[in-house]
Amino acid sequence: MISALCAALFALITWQVLVSGPLLTPDARLSRALVRTVPDAVTQRLSDLGNVPVAVPVLLLAVLYAVRRGNRRGAAAAALAMALVPALVVPLKEWTGRPGPLEPWATGYYPSGHTATAFVAYTAAALLVAPYTRRRWPLPLAAALTTLTAAGLILRGYHWPLDVLASFLMCTPLLLGVRGWASRRA
Prior knowledge:
By secondary structure, this protein is mainly α. It has helices at 2-19, 24-34, 40-48, 52-68, 72-96, 113-129, 138-156, 161-182. It is 74% helix and 0% strand.
């Protein structure tokens, strides 16, 4: 049910981006209201949380930990989800050709690869580690890191809000799959 809803909303947003539909007007308004309201030095660091050299090593450590603890299926599901991120994002960026908020001459901003990377890496890592800790910090920490990344990307003007939302919608089904496999042992 959740995956179907995410897919439908993702398709709607993608259609709006492709046809320059009416959803882009409030998206642009919101972006104009938010961009550069926080110093660039802060938003740049937040955006960097979605860089591959930052986020993927976190997931790699969690994958190794899960394998060591005997959760090979969960580790494989998390690694596969991360591998699917560029396989999904890159063709969509090329297909939609959406310009950026601050760089209207450049294209390839939809969906946000940094948001997708952060969301999958941090959440999958939390799903792999959570069963082995009595504390409830892994998932809230993953949510915080992903939210900070998304906020940094929007506030810095690297992405439109809909680019970020689309990445969340696109990656949620992947993470639901990871959750299903991470909870099993084998």
